[in-house]
Amino acid sequence: MVNQIVQQSKDWILKNKATTFLSVALFAMVITTIALAVSNNNNAADLSRCQETIDAIIASTTTPDAPTTTVSNEDTTVTLESTTVTVATETPGDGINYRLPQDNVPLHYDLLLHPNMALGTFTGRTTITIRTTQATNRVVLHSHLLQIGHVEFKCHNDTSLAYKDHGFDDVRSLLEINLNGNLGAQFESELTIEFSGRLDEQIVGFYSSSYRSETGTEV
After folding, report:
1. Nearest-angstrom CA–CA distance, 113 and 193
2. Would you state the torsion angle of the CA atoms of residues 98, 101, 102, 106, taken in this order, to the nearest 10 degrees?
3. Tell me, what's the pLDDT at 93?
4. Could you tell me which residue ranges the Aminopeptidase N-like N-terminal domain spans (predicted)?
5. N or C: which end of the chain has fewer CB within 10 A?
6. 200: Cβ–Cβ under 8 A, 6 or more apart, which residues?
């Protein structure tokens, strides 16, 4: 009899697989829901106990008020006396004008220097590109302790203009290059001068110097 009932149950389950699966799934979901509800109740109780503990700690702790400091700033007025410094811009006491004339303006320099350290001398050559701002028949340059050699002059606007001779203004240390005619305004020219001098003459311009190394040797 029992075997017959068991066999009938098996046959029913096999014939109603979908119904059986849904029933089992529904039962499992009900069990899970009940478990979650119990867990939530336990968590809520735990949270409630924690909150009560925190409230008790806060109530038993007294926080003193932070001290307040008031700073009062008083305005202070400081009066400064102004001092005026006057810098003298007068010409030297001898009244001599050492500046070059403004009738020629240099545009470019090419410079070659060849020192001879053994003899304490040097030679050099310079080519200066010049623009004339107002008519003149000379070019004036600074020159100090130099021996002037060959001089060439070439005007790009008038090829007839050429070097004539030169002279010195020893008081103002000026070299005056004289031409055979007048340069016109805005003329451009090239002036080439060869020169020589001594490296040990004075500590001015192009000169030699020495020093002692760590071993005491003069270099």
Report:
1. 12
2. -90
3. 52
4. 105-217
5. N
6. 120, 207, 208
Give CA–CA dist 125/114, Å, rounded.
Answer: 9
Work out whether the CA dihedral 3, 8, 9, 11 comes out positive or negative: positive
Q: Coil, strand, or helix at residue 156?
A: coil
Closest to 123 (Cα-Cα) out of 147, 102, 144:
147
- d(C-alpha 191, C-alpha 5), whole Å: 136
Q: Are 197 and 205 spatial neighbours (Cβ–Cβ below 8 Å)?
A: yes
Q: Which two tokens stand for residue 96?
A: 């001599």
Residues 161/101, Cβ–Cβ less than 8 Å: no
Residue 214 has what pLDDT? 85
Taking only the tens of pLDDT, the chain with its 219 residues reads 656 665 666 565 556 655 666 566 656 665 666 655 555 555 556 556 656 766 665 565 544 444 444 444 444 443 434 333 333 334 445 688 889 999 999 999 999 999 998 898 999 999 999 999 999 999 999 998 899 999 999 999 999 999 999 999 999 999 999 999 999 999 999 999 999 999 886 767 777 877 788 888 876
CA 34 to chain centre: 75
For 162, the 3-state DSSP assignment is coil
Largest CA distance in the chain: 154
Strand partners, 126: 111, 193
Chain center to CA of 214: 36
